[in-house]
Amino acid sequence: MAETRPRVATVLAVSSVVALSLVLASCGPRSDALHLGSTTSTYDSGLLDALVPAFTEAYPQYSVKVIAVGSGEALELGRRKDVDVLLVHAPAAELQFVRDGHGLDRHPVMYNDFVVVGPEDDPAGLREAVDVGAALRRIAAAEAEFLSRGDDSGTHKRERFLWSRAGIEPVGDWYREAGEGMAAALLVADATGAYMLADRATYSSLSDRLRLVPLLEGDPLLLNVYSVIRVSGARHPEAAGAFAAWLGSDAGRNRIATFGQAESARPLFQPVTQSDPPAETLAKLEQALSGQGLGPDR
Amino acid sequence: MTEIILRSLYVSGSALLLAALIGLPLGTALALGRFPLRRTAATLVYAGLALPPVVVGLAVYLLLSRSGPLGGLELIYSPPAMILAQALIATPYVAAITMAAVESVGPDVRLQARALGATPLQALLLHLREVRGSLVAALAAGFGAVISEVGAVMMVGGNVLGETRVMTTAIVLETRRGNFGLAIALGGVLLAIAFTVNAVLLALSRQSERRLFPS
Predict the structure, then answer these.
(1) Among A213-217, A274-278, B167-171, which is the least confidently predicted range?
(2) Measured between CA atoms, how close is B194 to chain A, in angstroms?
(3) Which residues of chain B have a CB within 8 Å of the CB of A4?
(4) Residue B48 near residue B91 (C-beta atoms within 8 A)
(5) CB distance B195 to B188 below 8 Å
(6) In chain A, what residues touch B22 (CB-CB under 8 Å)?
(7) Is the residue at A267 inside a domain?
(8) Which of A11, A43, A235 sits opposite B25 (nearest CB)?
(9) Most exposed of A239, B23, B139, B148 (fewest Cβ within 10 Å)?
(10) ipTM for the complex?
C-alpha cells in the first residue's frame, strides 16, 4: 500500500500533463475571421444569413463569425474585445458604449418597430390609447397581465425605458418576467393571454401560431433602430471597417431592403437612409432614450 | 447536419478523453491514497456533480476571453474552448463514480496479489480490473453529461455556423427560430447517438468481464 501511493501520484501527474498538452495541441490554426456580435432578432429572422454571404462575396478576403446573443451581452462581448464589430439595437446603451471609449463610431443601419401585442379581447382597452405611454398606464391601471422579456436584451431595455417614461414602476402579480428570447417569450404570453412588447419581425414570423394581436403601433418611441459599431481595440479593425462601410453602402442597403420581401407583405427591416426615418425623429428618439432630452411625459 | 453531428461527437468525445485521463487516476487516488485533505477533495469532486454547465462555461469564457488571462491563445469561439469546458464538466462524473467503484472493493485483492508476488502496480491494476464495469459506467455518465450539455458550449463556442455549432446549440437556435419540427428531429438524433454510445460501452464492459471471469 505504502508503495502504491507514489505510483498513483505519478500516473496522475503524467496524465495531467498529457491532457494539458492534448488541449494545447488541438489549438490548431488561429482564427482570423471578423467576429460580428449581433442579436438574436437579426440572426433568428435569417437576416444575417443573407447579409454575411453578400458581404463576403464583395470582400472575399474576409470571413465572418456571427455570435448572436442579446444586445446587452453583445455589448459586453464588445467591451471585452471578443467581437470586432457590433450590430445591435439598444440605442441608449450603445451611446454609453461609445462615450466610454469602447466603440470607435456608431451608425444607424436599419430599423423596424416594436408593437404592443395582447389578447384579442383587450381587457385593458389599449385600442383606445393615444400613445405607448397611455397604453402602459392603462395596463398598469387594469393590472392586466404583462410579460416582460426580462433578459436585458434590446427589447427589454426599451420596455423598461417606456415604463419609466410613462411614470410607472411595474411591480405586482400582473407583471412577470420571462427571461427568454423573443419567440419563446411570445409563446408564453400567448399561452397566458398577456400583453407584451414585441419586435415586429419576430411577431410577424410567428403570427400564424399566435392568438395575440397588435394593439398599439406607430408611436415614434417604438422605433427599433439597429446600429453598427466598430469596437475600439478590435483584433480585426480593417475587416470591421469594411463591414460597417458595406452595411451603409447602396449594396448593403439593398440587401437589407429586399430581405424577407418574398415571404411577408412588408420588409422586416428598412435600411436607414438620409431621409428615412426622418433625422429629426431619430435624434428625438436617441435624446429621449439617453435621458438628455424630454423628461418623462407628464 | 452530418457536420454538426460529427462536431458534437468530436467535441464531446475529446472532452471525455480528457476527463478520463484526469478523472480515472483522480478517482483512484482519492479512493486508495492516504494524504491530507483527501476527504475534502472527495467532497469537492461530489460537489462538482452539481456544478451548472453554464457556470463552467462562464468561467472558461472569462479565462479565454480576449481580455482574459489566457486571451492570447485566441481560443474563444473555437472547438478547443468547448472541449476544455466540457472536460471540466465531465471530470467530476468520471472521478466520482471511479472513486465509489474503487472504494467498493476491499484491500484483500491487493494484499493477496502482493502476497503472491505481484508488484504494487500489478496489484493496483488487478484491483481496477475488478471494477472494470463501473469504470465504463463512469465514462458513460461523463459522456452523457457533456453530449447533452448546451449552456457551456453555447457560451464559449458562440454557436458559430460551420465552426462551433453542435447539436444542442442547433436545437436551441431552431427552437428560437420557431422551427420546432427540426429541433425535435435533432433531439431524436441526439437521443439515438447517446443510446448507441452507451450500448457500445456496455457491450465492451460485458465482453471484458466475460474474458476475465469465464464461467
Answers:
(1) A274-278
(2) 24
(3) 32, 110, 120-121, 123-124
(4) yes
(5) no
(6) 15-16, 19
(7) yes
(8) A11
(9) B148
(10) 0.76
What is the DSSP-derived secondary structure letter of residue A127?
Answer: G
What's A30's DSSP letter?
P
Chain segment B159-213, per-residue pLDDT in tens = 998 899 999 999 998 887 778 899 999 999 999 999 999 999 888 877 776 666 5
A150 and A196 assigned to the same domain: yes
Closest CB from B29, B84, B120 relative to A9: B29
CATH assignment, B2-212:
1.10.3720.10
pLDDT tens for A92-111 read 899 999 999 999 999 999 99
CB-CB neighbours of A216 under 10 Å: 24
Task: Judge contact between A282 and A108, C-beta under 8 A.
Answer: yes
**Could you say which of B77, B80, B110 has the minimum Cβ distance to residue A67?**
B77
User: Would residue A297 count as lying in a domain?
Assistant: no
| Number of separate domains in chain A | 2
Query: Which residue, among B160, B164, B172, would best test binding to A if mutated, counting the most A CBs under 10 Å from its CB?
Result: B160
Residue that terminates a domain, selected from A195, A222, A249: A222
Measured distance CA(A48)–CA(A56) in Å, rounded: 12
Of A150 and B12, the one with more pLDDT: B12
Both A107 and A229 in a single domain?
Answer: yes
Please determine, for residue A275, whether its predicted confidence score (pLDDT) is greater than 90.
no
Domain that holds residue A80: 34-112+223-289
Domain locations in chain B as residue ranges: 2-212
Residues written for chain A:
298
Q: What is the reported pTM? A: 0.80
In terms of domains, do A138 and A69 share one?
no
Do A129 and A196 sit in the same domain of this protein?
A: yes
Q: Across the interface, do B123 and A11 touch by the CB < 8 Å criterion? A: no
Chain A interface disruption, residue of B7, B58, B60, B75, most A CBs within 10 A: B75
Q: What is the pLDDT of residue A278?
A: 79
